[in-house]
Fold this sequence. Notes:
Layout (H helix, E strand, L loop, with lengths): L2 H7 L4 E3 L8 E6 L2 E6 L5 H11 L8 H12 L11 E10 L7 H11 L3 E6 L4 E7 L7 H15 L2 E6 L3 E2 L4 H15 L6 E3 H16 L2 H9 L3 H12 L4 H8 L3 H15 L6 H11 L1
Parallel strand pairs: 7-9
Antiparallel strand pairs: 1-3, 2-3, 4-6, 4-7, 4-8, 5-6
Helix pairs in contact: 4-5, 6-7, 9-10, 9-12, 10-11
Amino acid sequence: MEFNEIKSIYSDAQLTDLPLENTNFISFPFKNKWIHFEKSTKTSSEIELLNLLFVSKKTNLSSVALKWQNYLINGVEPSPPTLDSEFRIIQFIILKKDSYFEKKTWLSAFKSIFSNSKEAFFTNETSGLLIQKKSDEKLTFAELSGIIQTLDDDFSIKTICYIGQFWPINKEFKSIFEEEQFIFEKQKNKGKSLLSLPIVALHHYTSESLDKSILMPILKKKYTTQPELKELILAMWHSQGNISLAAKSLYVHRNTLQYRIERFCDTSGLSLRNMDDLLLCYLLVF
């Protein structure tokens, strides 16, 4: 069914690239976009019908997984399946999937990475969620990245994940997830395969102000148009100003890197050894 056909039946239907941060709407994944309906104008029977229409039967969701999906995504379940402990939501999207991709096998392998994972399911053909209960056992971010990369190699795909924070199941839980979902939609095409709030917070929460700025684009054009300067700034940022670590990541001698930093300072007046200057330069290149 095409959107215009749905629109002819439900005139309030909306189609967007990103989820809506509005609890007054019922939302469903729809052809790599999101379709929304006003909740207040729908009867319980209409909501049930929409749920049957947009929740794919091919996913063979368990009853608990379906409750999680109806609670988090579809807006037709008023409460979560459990009120026990703290949970986090891991969002994923799969790229470069070929016709031989075994979705069920991959999902089982992906779920096994996370200790105490309760449910994992696809919300559309390429995206889905994993529900993880908090436990003492946890992998470091680097270890997790390596395991997912190995899994990608085994299945000849590319996975992009957003690792949510652990939150108690309360009235804010769904709203928090919706913000995490919105962040993931905005940040998933930035080049990183594994995302979390600490990684994307600076990008996400400053992007609107940067878009409205007049002076930042001028500074960017003036100081950071050369590819090697971007590489230099990112190396210093990721090493948090440690010249030895930055030189190692760039495969150059420490003295060579110091010379480049001094030359950039001479032309721009910005010292990459100073964390305030380094932050400004980082904002110019991301």
